[in-house]
Specification:
- By secondary structure, the protein is an alpha+beta fold.
- It has a single domain, classed as Glutaredoxin, CATH 3.40.30.
- The protein is about 25% helix and about 20% strand.
- It is built from 4 helices and 6 strands, in the order βββαβααββα.
- The strands form 2 sheets. A 4-stranded mixed beta sheet has the order 4-3-5-6, with helices on one face.
- The longest helix has 12 residues, at about 40-50.
């Protein structure tokens, strides 16, 4: 079976990024949306990024339009929205599907590694978060309503 580091994704500008570039880092991978009730979590994610990036945390944001069409914009519009409204400096990637036949290989990997409530793999909504250790192992999955600040202790244990 492929590891997380065997997967390549496209950044927000459409350029391929091998996840192996994040080997040795703690990752927080989040499916995001600009028009969601949880969108203000961008502020908390950016605060975590500012506080812990220097210690080895990488936050990776993956816009997704699968839930209530809450991410309708282009990648350029998404990037501008995140910068202007939340000062986002962590990496954003091209829009992905997280569920269904066209789900990104990254999300297929994350969901099979850490199932949700009652053992379901499907992502339920925007801002589901996956915590990955420095060896590329998915260690925890968090519900959309879990605020980024609440993850700090778990992240700290891995740093």
């Amino acid at each position: 079976m492929a590891t997380l580091y065997d997967i390549t994704v496209d950044d927000i500008h459409g350029k391929p990024v091998k996840l192996s570039r994040y080997k040795g880092k703690v990752l927080l991978i989040v499916n995001t949306a600009s028009k969601c009730g949880f969108t203000p979590q961008y502020k908390g994610l950016e605060a975590l990024h500012q506080k812990l990036h220097g210690k080895g945390l990488e936050i990776l944001g993956f816009p997704c339009n699968q839930f209530g069409a809450q991410e309708p914009g282009s990648e350029t519009e998404i990037e501008q929205f995140c910068e202007l409204n939340y000062g986002v400096t962590f990496p954003l990637f091209a829009k992905v599907d997280v569920n269904g036949e066209s789900a990104s290989p990254l999300y297929k990997h994350l969901k099979s590694a850490k199932k949700g409530v009652l053992g379901f793999e499907a992502i339920k909504w925007n801002f589901t978060k996956f915590l990955v250790d420095r060896k590329g192992q998915v260690v925890k999955r968090y519900a959309p309503q879990t605020e980024p600040k609440a993850l700090e202790a778990d992240i700290g244990k891995l740093l």
